Amino acid sequence: MFTQEAIKLGYTVHVYSPEKNSPACKAGAIEWTGSYIDFPSLRRFLDTVSGLSFEFENIPEECLDFINDYSKSRDLNFLKPNANSIKIAQDRILEKQFFNSIGLNTVLYLPIVTGEEDFSQFPMPAILKTTRFGYDGKGQWKFNTSEELKVFLHENPPSNTLKYILEAYYPYDYEISVIYARNQEGKEFIFPPALNFHRNSILDMTEFPAPIPENIHNLAISSASLLGKNLDYAGVFGLEFFVSGDELVVNEFAPRPHNSGHYTQNGSDISQFELQLRILTGMDLPERNTIKPCLMKNLLGDDYSNSLQLCLELMSKDSRYHLHLYQKDEAKPGRKMGHINFVGKKSEVDKRFFNLT
Description:
Distance between the termini: 21 Å
Number of strands: 15
Number of domains: 3
Mean pLDDT: 94
Helix content: 25-40%
CATH class of the largest domain: Alpha Beta
CATH topology of the largest domain: D-amino Acid Aminotransferase, Chain A, domain 1
Structural class: alpha+beta
Low-confidence stretches: none
């Protein structure tokens, strides 16, 4: 989707990936294939581009360090966001510690990195998560007692390559997220919060703007701004929150355009992908933005054929539906294949929209 925005505005996009025929290449990007730690190949790629960002944050630290050193050697500042922001987002322990260090509220947590930690007094139930590579419910387990957790850790002990974080179960009322953008000069562009709904731990639908109290809205915006400034961020991120009553708890952030921000493609004058492009290329960020009510529904690989057929039917009858497909080769259960946006009020949408999977 970033590639589509960039080409539309006249830019050439190069994509470096370990996998051939990536979705971005199908959208018109020039493909470079190689390992993230194949530094000669990576250098040839870097010699070709004038701005660099990431599609996802799980990049090896050696790769980030190489790019950082390369950037300094050429007196460039073309990696956006900076490597430190990506490293923090990669590790749930570092992420929680950073949130707390700048005054953002999180759930109670305990790093489990040696297997010798005393969690006997930790409140249960609790969620154990791997510190890295977990998403869409992967790499996490719920435990009702400390004895259950003890057995699991005995069978799956932490190691140099596997560490955990134990998080207190938080019975929140709802989840919201904020899409935040900031350029190198510190100018911000922040969308109002959106309301998220999940199915089987995967984002199912986003409602924008979120129908939430003003104090929660303002606190979410100020929290995103606080994070962006303290990271000296340049780029786009998505920041997720849990809300319980008047309490706002930061969950995690993604240092890139986020699934919960896909409503920006049709519910806003400017999308999160164009904002990312503007920041990478040095274009100014807009002073104003008109937003429209929008619902975003993810399309997974579980029943993709039938979902796609229904989307096409909805679009043929109402121009307020907009389909966005990711050009992935194979539909698999739980795999995000695309999404459909409806521009309008929730009460105006065809009821079948809510059954799309």
